[in-house]
Every structure is written in structure tokens, then in C-alpha cells.
Predict the 3D structure of the following.
Amino acid sequence: IASAILSFISFIFFLIGAAGHGDDESTVKSIPWGFVTYDDADIDFHLGLQGFYVDSSESGLGSEYLNYADDCEGADFCDTCEDAGPTVVAMCVLALVVALGAGVFNVLGVMSGSVLASIGSTVCAVIAAIFAIVGFAVFGPCLTDAVDDAGDLGDTTGTYGSAGWLTLVGFIFMLIATILDAVTFCIADGG
């Protein structure tokens, strides 16, 4: 049952990662995939999968949402992030569908004692973990390029945002679910 719980929690985390594809200010502010901060100027970039939100209200310059495809020219990270977005959201959607499958198979395996359901749960957990880590990794160059571009203006720091971190935690949960499924299968099989 622990594996099913982890799978269902991962489903929610992957859903949040996919929601990071939203193309509006409130989505990017609420569930960004990454952050870049200009340390000297009090300017924060909230990176999403389709655009970014520039928060420079503390420096008195105002704030705005910019779309990578339409509003962003001359910065290398815009092209990188625009290219990464569809792949990242696809990986998150695939991970959440397969994580749901892992949870369902796990519950079916516990209820029926079916070996096939247990195998299905394990296979789905592995596949969901692979999709999640690929999505997380594909976003990495976007964050790196954004930090590099921002570094031209002064000291900057960059980190993954809530959507990125939750996708990574979902990946870890799916790995734990895989281990739990494998151990449960071995114990049930007698070896």
C-alpha cells in the first residue's frame, strides 16, 4: 500500500510540474520551474515553461510577464527555454499518467494477490521515474542559460522552482515505490 500512496502523491507532484506550462503571470509566479535572482539589483525572474515573470518591484522598475516566443529577443535562455517547454510538459504528463497506472496496479495487486499486477506496478513506477527525471533534466539548460545571461549584468543565483523540485521529489518517490514493489514481489515469491 505504501507504494500506491507514493504513486498517487507522485501523480499530484507531476500534475503540478505539468501545470508549470501555464502561459500567464499567476501560474509562473505560483509554480515556477526555476528562479534567477540578480543579487545586486533586487530583480527576480520566475521561469516557466512558456515564459517568465520579471519581478523588479522592489527596485522600482515594475514587473511583467514575458512569453519566450513572442516577447523575448536577444537572450540565449529564451530559445533554450522555449525549446525545453514542450518536452518538459510532455514528460510530466506521461509521468503522471504512468504513476497513476502504478498506483492502480499496486492496489489491484494488493487486493487480488496478482503477480501480474505487481509486475505492472513495478514497471509503471520505473517508467514514471524515467519520464520525471528526463523532464527535470531537460529544463536544466534553460536554468543554466538564464543564469549565464543574467550573469552578464552582475552577480546572479539560480535554482529550480516549486514545479521543478516537486517533479524531482515525484521521481524519488517513484524510485522508492519501485524498490518497495520489488521487495514485496520477492517476499511474496519466496526469494
Residues 2 and 177 are 8 Å apart (CA to CA). The mean pLDDT is 88.
